[in-house]
Amino acid sequence: MWLAFRNVSVFLALFVVANVFAQGIPEEQYSQEEARAKRLLNEAIEYYRSHGDDAMAAFSRQGRFVQDDLYVYVINTDGVMLASGGPSANLIGRDVGAALNDDLNKPLKEALSLPETGEMHAADYRWMNWSDGREERKRVLFQRLDDKVFSVGYYLPRSSEDEAKQFLDRVTAAVAQSPEETFVRINALDAEFQSDDLYAFVVDLDTERFVAHGYNLRLVRSDFRKIHSADEHPIGQQILEAVEINDEGTVSYVWPNPVTRKNEQKITMFRRVGHYIVLVGYYEGPR
């Protein structure tokens, strides 16, 4: 959410385009990482209820409120950083909003003005993962208590099935309208056609060769039929055979996740557009 590091303006600019903001989170949607973050946030809130403002010191040092890459940070409703167990500790005591222009202050003030309802909310943004130095998607869980907003964030290494479907819709529409231009943009790693672990690749059915790939440019113009999964299954041939039966569908195989850098089970959705196949996949987890 409004976690700050060295460049607060850049961070808040990313926060402005959050796709989840101030929404209650159903319990059944929690993954293991979400559950860890929720437990830490609840523990911090209970600690504050018991210890009052003395809790800020506990939140700002290494200990029970720093768990691997999870940590607690607190901002008051005036926008001042009160506590942080992470990189934003250098802003403790400072007005975060003072470094922002009017356009960036607006979403911050909206977040800080949420009423105290006892609900936990969420926001998504992009942030540097201090464990590996890579910019990744992050989600923060936050809750207001008194004049303070308590927060815990965690990284999102995998996109959802719905996100992959929306991504496929966007790419297929672009290919249908302007195929050559779209291929150039995919191969140039245009941000519209690449998002964390989501990327598109396109195969020409006439030549059975890649014409675009949003992650590995070395595959462009290579023979799609010769592509094998990480565990050596002939997935290129499998997909070509599948598209002869249906114009769209899914295939499952093991493939490296560019975010986690591990081989994971991947579900790839394909759709025929003219004499091209457009493909987008999402990862289910380690294999």
Structure write-up:
With 287 residues, this protein is α+β, with helices and mostly antiparallel strands. The protein folds into two domains: 8-155, Beta-Lactamase (2-Layer Sandwich); 161-286, 2-Layer Sandwich (Beta-Lactamase), CATH 3.30.450.20. It is 29% helix and 30% strand. Strands 1, 2, 3, 4, 5 and 6 form a six-stranded antiparallel sheet that branches. Strands 7, 8, 9, 10, 11 and 12 form a six-stranded antiparallel sheet that branches. The longest helix has 20 residues, at 32-51. It starts with 7 loop residues before the first helix and ends with a strand. InterPro entries: Double_Cache_2. This is Double Cache domain-containing protein. Pfam families: dCache_2. It comes from marine sediment metagenome.
Highlighted features:
287 residues; alpha+beta; Beta-Lactamase; 2 domains; 6-stranded antiparallel beta sheet
- Structural class of the secondary elements? alpha+beta
Structural domain count? 2
Strand tally is 12
The radius of gyration computed from the alpha-carbon positions, rounded to a whole number of angstroms, is 22 Å
Distance between the termini: 31 Å
Largest sheet: 6 strands, antiparallel
Helix content: 25-40%
Mean pLDDT: 83
CATH class of the largest domain: Alpha Beta
Strand content: 25-35%
Organism: marine sediment metagenome
Domain Double Cache: 61-275
Pfam family, one: dCache_2
InterPro entries: Double_Cache_2
